[in-house]
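Worked Example 4.2. Read the sequence first, then its structure tokens.
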Amino acid sequence: MLVLILIGLLGGLITAVSPCILPVLPVVFLAGGPGTESETSPGAATGTHPGKGEGRQLPEGGTAASGTLVADPESGTRAADPGETPRHTRNRRPYAVVAGLVLSFSFFTLLGVTLLSALGLPQDILRYIGLALLVLIGFGLIFPPVERLLEKPFARLPQRQVNKGGSAFVLGLGLGLLYVPCAGPVLAAITVAGARGQISGEIVALTISFAVGTAIPLLAFALAGRRVAERVAAFRTRARKLRIGAGVLMVALAFALAFNVTDAIQRALPDYTSAAQKKIEDSDTARQQLSGLYDNSNKELSRCEDGVDQLRSCGRAPAIDGIAKWLNTPGGAPVDLAAQHGKVVLIDFWTYSCINCQRSLPHIEAWNAAYKAYGLEVIGVHSPEFPFEKDAGNVASQAKKLGVTYPVALDNKLTTWDNYRNRFWPAKYLVDANGTVRYFKFGEGQYDQTEDLIRTLLHQANPQVPLPPKTGQKADVLTADRTPETYLSNLRISGYVGTPLVDDKPATYHFPAAIPLNSLSLDGTWTAGYDHFTAGRNARLAFTYRARNVNLVLGGNGPVTVLVNGKVTRTIQVHGTPSLYALVNASTPAQAHLELRVAPGVEGYAFTFG
């Protein structure tokens, strides 16, 4: 049990600093408010609100000298008469907001599905409640009467418990319903147990330790916000304006979350916690502890290791069972895994709010397009992490938005997830033509290796099949000096010439006098990141290549004008999630000079040549 608790604690710590929690950080930071609240001694601390017979505390954001409080109808603060001794109470809003977040997230992750099912309520109602609370708290910061209304349920708490933290606690409850962290094996184990209603002592201990681990970094961030408010004079002298600004930010965040605007920001960030997460949560000890929470069915899958560079025999592929609905199939008909005998099957476990999953989807879609005609069957298993991801309409809408065209099984009861003893979003399983699992990969990355193994299995299934070259390339006899695949990454780029790259911040670049074969250069403003380059003002990219076809994975929104040897050949309208776009489709291979004129905000990921 102690080892399980330690794993949960470390898993929570890693989760709380991952890119997926970035949308809630500004709210947590601003939730602290000013560092202290000034109150008079008992009996004089509450004063009288104009026109009312009841006392009211000094609003957060106000300051007071000693004495009797006098209401200021515009600012909501009150001055004080001399002669009374002020009493300073520590602002506990940071503790209240983090407590509310952790409490609601833990409670509804474990029991939300059971409660919603028992009450017959829609699965996404908790998300809408969270959005409503966030908007309400935002309005409370902008309009003091709304905040007083939110504080009323906490007014009977003893003064030493700082009942004024009530609105912060409500804010935390709302954030907990919207908190969508990157899920590793620990959170996956908690989610699966909650979805099934299998709440054991081990699961409760794991949940509490995970919640505590999550709370520590978030509380540090909230306390940092309080500290800034205490130390920076502008927070004290302009408290009212800052509270209005914070309220506007919360309302804006609610709308951004409602329309998934924050997803684009999260996709743009590298998954910098994945290595630590796998080291802790997917270690041999963690696997033993977490797998012990379930039964021993399909245990032979544990014989294989994640992401190895060779095919192995990992046991028969478990059935795809317990599916609520199928998408992207004729008439919604199910795909029978047993009927795929003779085909190579790629099973991808994903969920639409998972940023790591969103970043992997373009690769899977490209494999589906390239190899479906040669015997590859791609099946997406949508295993929800949160209740709102069970809604078939939500999944269908997001799948279409993310460019998913292959069959998707809605694994709402996580039956298939459990069949495969899965622990990660995303996770890819390769099944050979005889129905045996030969390889699996947890998380992002190793796309080239996975594609190579797909090709190997296709050749094993049909040695005479004339496979096309790897994704984005055309099958023909090309010259040996065809330009290789090139990543737009500040760490993996090859053949770059011109102004030295500046990591992770906008910089101005200039084309050199000449660009050699198999080399590229930048001009204008670009931000060179780990997994993509983002265009800024007057952004251009030049590439001297030898190939018949040129493709580039692009994301964001805006036009990209393509010039070959100085002549405009096409204009591409980039929209939404990163996808593969054809830049050049020539009849014969040739050496040419490519220039791209890229709209600000468009992201480039990787060139492929055929």
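Now turn to a second chain, presented in exactly the same format:
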Amino acid sequence: MIDKELMKLLGNGKKYIVYAVISMVIGLFANLGITFSICSAISLTMEKALPQAYAPVAILAFLAILVRYVCTRCTGSLKDRIGREVKKDLREKTYDKIVRLGGKSTADMSMAGLTQVSMEGIEQLDLYFSSYIPQFFYAMIAPVILFLISVGMDAKVAIVLLCCVPLIPVSIIAVSKWAKKIFAKYWDKYTSMGDYFLDSVQGLKELKIFKADARQHEKMNQTAEEFRQITMKVLTMQLASTTIMDLVAYGGAGLGIAFVVKDLSTGKIPVTTAIFLMLIAVDFFLPLRAFGSAFHIAMNGVSAGKKILHLLETPDPVWGSREAEGTDLTLENVSFSYDGERQVLKNINMTFPKAGMSAIVGESGCGKSTIVRLADGNSVPLMGQILVGGIPLKELSRSDFYSHIAVVSYNTYIFNDTVRNNFLLAAPEASEAQMKEALEKVNLWNFIQENGGLDKVIAEDASNISGGQKQRLALAVNLVADKDIYIFDEATSNIDVESEAIIMKNIKALSRKKNVIVISHRLENIVPADQIYFLAAGEVKERGSHEELMAAGQGYAELYRRQKALEEGYMEVMA
């Protein structure tokens, strides 16, 4: 009933669970004190005692109520403390893990699933630790305490009540296997629906353009219907389980009370003892009944917790502690596979000098972007090694490596923040003069100045600026970061001609002092490159300058001429 793996996530919160259980046990004794006071008052009334005889009973009742109140408040406060500690600790661990994993963080989980697990999943796990675990221990202790107290009054009744108590855990165990399967499916459907919804919202413009929004709406309804059905199964299971527990709890209490009445009728126990046993009979079952209710909440938390554990137990990328002694980048006999079977890169050998412009070209699917993932540390070669300044990448410290490298891609993320803060994320010490200079280089300063200056807020997904402006801003931010190695992965894709020309001009200027690697489908952009690697089927087929490769008349030359002919044909049509 307690998942040992999930308990590892509790951290320092274990002591608060102990305190909460102690507080609940003290509260139980306070309840017994109140019950004893009631029975004593009834006994005094039956004996027609003098008013002053009620004073000790009233004092005991007052003290018991006061202790009960304090314990209730303390228990609630401790449970809240457990929840807050768990949520804070888990969110820190989850975020730190995602940061350490870098580009690998969503390898086995979609972005929507990752968000749901780290937000809603942790909320569910909070209930598991703050409600379920304390109640579990209290439910095990309370019936034993009540048995020890009642066995001296009427052993037969105490044994009957204690024997009925395990029927509730038995019913919970019987339901648990069914519940785990249902809740696992429930969480899968929940994250699946979130994925589909996020995908639909992000692609809403395309859905409208292709008039596919109605079809997508139907699919969304189907996904929602599947989630509704699994939710109904969860509720059915919970209702059935609750009904069984109620039958056991109240049936057991009723059976105990029946034995009390029988013993009272035969004169084996006095009236006050009988009343006391009747009042505490239900208390035998209430802790386990509450535990059964918490169990259903816990199962949802367990499903979410398993996903969080899977994320936290994902092996971190292997890094060393050395610092790079140079900024030249080398791939030596590198092979790579995404599935461990089909190699997308085969025996790749490339050298990128500390200054100069290198290009990687080839048709779609030849492995260009995979080389980027390897070069920026987000993937590990199946065979071979990557060297930075002659030192294997895996021996470098993470912080040192990323202090030297920057990647500007076709989808570089611009944060929903001011222009100034986007610069400061990349270069915390950057001055306004440096920001202005970088924006001027990419011909963006006048636009920024006319629209609020450096305090202009960039909307989510940079929706308030054009695609070309977004790419130029991304380039400006990276220029201010002043790295040693720049990788441009389709940085001029899907933008206007003016922005493309500005970006390529800055790339070429940057290559005079920096190690610049350009990946582009448009071969005209890489004509000025000092060296070009032509890939086909995951292998380096050709290497040389544009002039050398054109003179060779092989794959690169054929691709260049074909692309050139298409562009000229397009220009003629447009003219």
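Notes for the reader: The chain has a mean pLDDT of 84. The beta strands are 329-337, 343-352, 356-362, 383-388, 391-392, 405-409, 485-489, 515-519, 531-536, 539-544.
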